Structure formats: structure tokens, C-alpha cells
Amino acid sequence: MATAFFRALPGEAGSPAGLQSASGGAGVTPLTVPASAGTVSNELPFGKQPQANLAPGGSPLASPSGTSPNVPGTPIPQGQVPGANFIPSSHAQVLSLGNRAGVALPHAQAGNGVPDKAYTSLPAYEPKLGGITAGVPEAHAGTGAAAAQHPAGGAAPFYFSGDDYGVPSPGGAGTDAPAAPAAGGFGLDALSRQAIAALNGQGQQAVPSVPSNLPGADSASASAAPAGAPQYYFVDSVVLPSGYVTPAKPHPHGGAQAVPQAERGHRPAFDVNAVRRDFPILSERVNGKQLVWLDNAATTHKPRQVIERISHFYEHENSNIHRAAHELAARATDAYEHAREVVRRFINAPDVNEVIFLRGTTEAINLVAKAWGGQHVGEGDEIIVSHLEHHANIVPWQQLAQAKGAKLRVIPVDDQGQVRLDEYQKLINDRTKIVSVAHVSNTLGTVVPVKQIVEIAKRRGITTVIDGAQSIAHTPVDVQDFGADFFVFSGHKIFGPTGIGVLWGRRAVLEDTPPWQGGGNMIADVTFEKTVFQPLPNTFEAGTGNIADAVGLGAALEYVERLGIENISQYEHSLVDYGMAQLGAIPGLRLIGTVPGKASVLSFVLDGYSTDEVGQVLNSEGIAVRTGHHCAQPILRRFGVETAVRPSLAFYNTFGEIDQLVAIIRRLASQRRSG
Question: Which residues form the Aminotransferase class V domain (predicted)?
């Protein structure tokens, strides 16, 4: 394997044609970069960049080496071949944006016309890239037509993903790619018309125009955007009690490029080896060993696409949003609002204005408890949670109950760790005001039947909250199908940045919830006597939000969309089933939570060892797990333990990594028995 691997390296005898040495030694053939539309020059010596937007030395946008074996499906021989730990960093040197599919372009770059020819590392899992990924001359790459350029007219504010593509066939191969769209049309015209008609059919209010008596009204109307394009870009106009209409500023681009239009693409069959090459940190070494990250329930790692998108924001778009009339404000707001639309699409929310950006799941639950609960829960009322909950879905409701004189009631679980719906129905009564449950347990991995829980509550007119922090990355989420009133999740649990999360709420419920915080961005008019608030979503986004990380979250969700959450879920379930079977066969090991069909989590305790001792041994071997109570003490105590070892999986983990974990635990169990 090692011999075949090194023969495939650039410059080695027997390497594929088209791969050139990047060593920089005498007699080196210059690296040939295939020409494409709008690309300058064909031949560049290695390390030389065109004189436009140069990436300085040491920049993450500068490729560290030449072409490399970036072929999806080629395993990385980690820990077996000398130097293999550095392979994921040796990506093919290509133009950073010019060769990317439209769906992968940072929005501001796609819309502002600024050329960007800096070199960057090529993502390994990019289904629409040509043969350069594999070192194949561009002329011999795939036969699909090139992506059409954006039409001159306004772009429709809708985004589509290939939901019918990429499901593995029985033979393991992905479905065929769709026919290439006609030039200039993207193949989206009919879908756009349907989406626009659906939006109009929902009775959404049109954005008010600028009052004719305001300065600049004539110029604003003169520069109106083309029909079908968003007319306004900044905070909505609001009618004040006096009848005065606050102005909404027109988009500085004229609206023509206010919203990106992603081309529709297919999804390949899931390939974990290709996925792993998109995550730089997975090439890290810990205590001299290759990192094995099994702490995904705590946080997930970030693909290169997310890291680069955030970097691009700070380098090209950084500004405050929803205010100012300059170019960077336009770019920043475009990027931020595009991320909101991506979230809407990902969770299938009916209205983009129902998507609220917050710091994370904890803040979102606190907002609902303090704002909605503060107004609707009174003395003698009851709040229901389950025994599975994270402390973040217990403590805010306890605080509310104590403040209001209400009562907190708990749905019990069975010995496998599943909620008991029969007991839940007994808890429901006329005093129940709200039910808040986790979709997936962070400690047991139990997938809770949230749809049934919501249906039971809705029969009595009870408000419902779903904590999706542990489900968002592992299973499809459809808030309309769930039927709940609120759904919350954190970005860092789904390969996005920390410090950003989402509260989705039904419009009617959100409009019946008072603002939680006051400040800029959420106000329409302020006097010392009264304040008029902005409509949704700005009502709940006071002050300057975490703009860059919201953009990063959007990039993370788009990355997951390209892989297909169904493909991810299927692969992860295979991992979990395998891990449960292997761990369960170890003498002296007790699994905590054994519900069939669980997600991600493999919690256990091992006879003769504290959980910290197990965690320390695993860490010495480069394996990262969490030990402790996992911010879920009630459910661990239900199973008679105070702490547990918690390996937790994501789509970039492998069966081989589970084998490494199991081998170490078996060794520990054997040593304790023999001692």
C-alpha cells in the first residue's frame, strides 16, 4: 500500500500523467493550471500567483504544495506511512473561487464582481469539480456542461438543493447527475415561479415603499431593482402610531444581485475518506498518536469550507448589518441574510422571518422561558420536561416555575432510556402551559418521539419546544412535520462555529412573545415615552449579532446539504450499531442507554475504573472522549451512576476508529481482571 501510494505522488515514476513535481528543484516542469472562463494565464511556476488579490505568505489561502492524490475514495493511510499525517494539508493548487461550483461560492464574491485569483486548498469532497482534483487534464475531465453564468436580471431569492439526488443505490453508487441546465437559465425558472407563487399565497405583506415626501424618494424609485428582485435590503419599513412610515433603504446594488442563486447539484454516494480530507484538524497528532475525535456531542469540527468562508467574510465583507449605505454593509447583510435563508431551508421552516439568530441552544431556551413563559405562565401552572434533558432544558424552566409559583413535572423513561408516552399522557392536564423536550439525548443518544409528544400536547392547546442540539447533525429535521411551536439548535453541534445558534418559532407564537432584550437593530422608533419595535426576525436580535459566525453556520449547513443528511444518518447508524455491539461484548462494561435506533452516543461505565481513569488512558492514545456527568445529572442518576464515559460519533468517524477504542477498553478490562 505504501509503495503504491508513493508512486502516485507528483514527480514519482509511474505517477499519473499530468501530475508535476512541486519540489522546486532543478529541471522542474512548471505547474499547469487549466484555463477557464475569466482565468488569466496557463502556466505558472510553483508558488507564483497572478498579480491580483495576492495571498501573502503564510495565509490559509496560499496552497502549501502542488497537486496531490485528492481522489474521493482514496483512504488516507494515517499512522502507517511516514509523513502521512501531512497528506490532508497537501491539496491541489487551483484557483480558489474560479473553479468552484456556484453553490460553493461565498455569496458576496458571487455577487459583487470583484475578481479573486488567490490560491487556496481544494476541498476533497466537492462533487462538481473537474478532473483537476485527481490530476486529470481538464480536457479529459467529466463531460458535464459548465455552470452557466448568472443572468443579468434579478436573482430569485430562493435556494434549492438536490433532494432527489445522491441516495446510495443498492450497489453503493450514487444516482446519476441531472442533465446540465440550459445556459443562462440554471434550470430553476419553473421552480422559482412555484416558490414565488407559494410565497405570495401565504399572504406575506409586501415591503412598503419609501414615502414620497422623504428626501431621496425620487432617486430611490428611479434606481428600483428589476421586477422580481428584492426591492429593499435593510431593516423593513414600519408604520408608527402617528402614521409616519420609517424609510427602508434601497439595496446599493439595485437589488439585481442582492440574493445569490445557487445552481442545483447532485450528491455523490457518501464517502467517509473524502469527507475526512475536508477537516484539517483530523490530521492533528495528540500525544504522538493520530487524533481520533469521539467527542462530537460536545462539539464538532469544522470543514475547510466553513473556515475559509469565515476568513473570506473578515477579508472582504466585514461590516455591521442592516444599517449604513456603503458597499461592505451591503455585502455583510447579504451574507447574513443568506445564512438565515439556508437555515430556513435546512429545517424546512415556512417563513425565513421565523428564524432568529442567537448565541446557541441555551440562550434560545432561556429566551422562550423568560419571554414567552414570563408572559404566559402563572401561579399554579405546570411545565413538562423529560428525564433525558440537558441542564439547559431544566434550569430555565425551574427558574420560571420558582418565579411564577408554577410546577415542573417530568416524563419518566424506561430501562432502555426511552420516554414513556403512557406516563406523559397522565401528566397532561388543564394547567399544563408548555412542554419542552430534547429530540436526541446528549447522554444516552435516545431519539425521542417528538412528533407524538407534540401531537398529544396540541390536542390540549399546549405550547411545545424541541431542543434539537443533538439531533440537527444526525437526522433530518422538518419543523413543519414536527408541528412544534419552537425548535432550537447550536451551530457548533453541526460543524459550524461556536457562539451562534438558532431559535425557530411559529410566527403567531413569536408575535405573541415580547422582546427579551432591547437595543439597536430591533427598534423602529424610540422616544422617552414609547418604543416601536421592528417586525420579525429583528424583534429578537437586539444589538450587533455574531455576523461572521452566522455566515459560517450557513456554510456548514450547505456543506451538510451537499453530502445529504439522509446519507449521513444512514452511515452514522451503521457506526452506532457496530460500536454498541463491540462495546457490549466487553466483560465488565455496562452500556448506559440501549434504545434501538439511537444516535451518535455510546455512553458506558467500566468495572474497576473511574470514568476519569478511562478517559486519561484513551487520551494517551490520541482518542478524545468526554467523561463526567455531561450536564445531565438526573438521567445518569436514573441509571444509578454519577458519571459515564461518552464516546460520540459524527460522519467523519470510521469503523477503524471504533476498533481502536474497543481494543483499548478490552485491554483495560483484561488488566483489571488479571490484577
Answer: 292-661
